[in-house]
Description:
The structure holds two protein chains of two kinds. By secondary structure, chain A is mainly beta. Chain A has strands at 4-7, 10-13, 19-25, 32-38, 44-51, 57-58, 67-73, 76-81, 90-96, 104-105, 109-113. In chain A, a hairpin with a 5-residue loop joins strand 5 (44-51) and strand 6. The relative contact order of chain A is 0.33. In chain B, 34% of the residues are buried. The chains are: A mainly beta, B mainly beta. Chains A and B meet through strand 5 and strand 9 of A and strand 5, strand 6 and strand 10 of B.
Amino acid sequence: GAVVSQHPSWVICKSGTSVKIECRSLDFQATTMFWYRQFPKQSLMLMATSNEGSKATYEQGVEKDKFLINHASLTLSTLTVTSAHPEDSSFYICSVLPVGTEAFFGQGTRLTVV
Amino acid sequence: AQSVTQLDSQVPVFEEAPVELRCNYSSSVSVYLFWYVQYPNQGLQLLLKYLSGSTLVKGINGFEAEFNKSQTSFHLRKPSVQISDTAEYFCAVTPYSSASKIIFGSGTRLSIRP
């Protein structure tokens, strides 16, 4: 199966700063990657679909100018939380979904904005 | 469109007792079905999957699930749970198409009591 590496696993930042989260597909060329957000004791909420070489597709209600996604290669997608505020504190998870099999997830990133 | 319903948000069980976590889905197209487990501050790990073939599938850690097409269910079972099974469990589906989204249920928190 695919191996997905997400970095960092946790980050603390000051309000108003930007944070970049990386998602790497180590052994699978992913033309598409998915970014999720998870609040405590809740399910995963799909934020956006990252498309290699083109613009990401954002889910309804997700601010594309706040959550910048770049998918510059078949193995790397990045999520940048711009001008972070405490309400952006959450657990962010990326995944790849090869055709005909299960999704593979990164380890997740715990973002705390203070 | 697809949807996944996990009827129980929390399931408390005594150690070594059997457990069943319920999952029902709705879809106008054929889907693959999955159960994932999430331990605190970690990404999701695949427990088991149904792609085709035998409707009874066995996964890791002694879990199994049975696909029932007529009832559109995919309930997860384990005959004897351990303390280490305490985690959040997510049922999920993906349609039979490329780069499609994975749709999650709301999750069931399984807590094992000694």
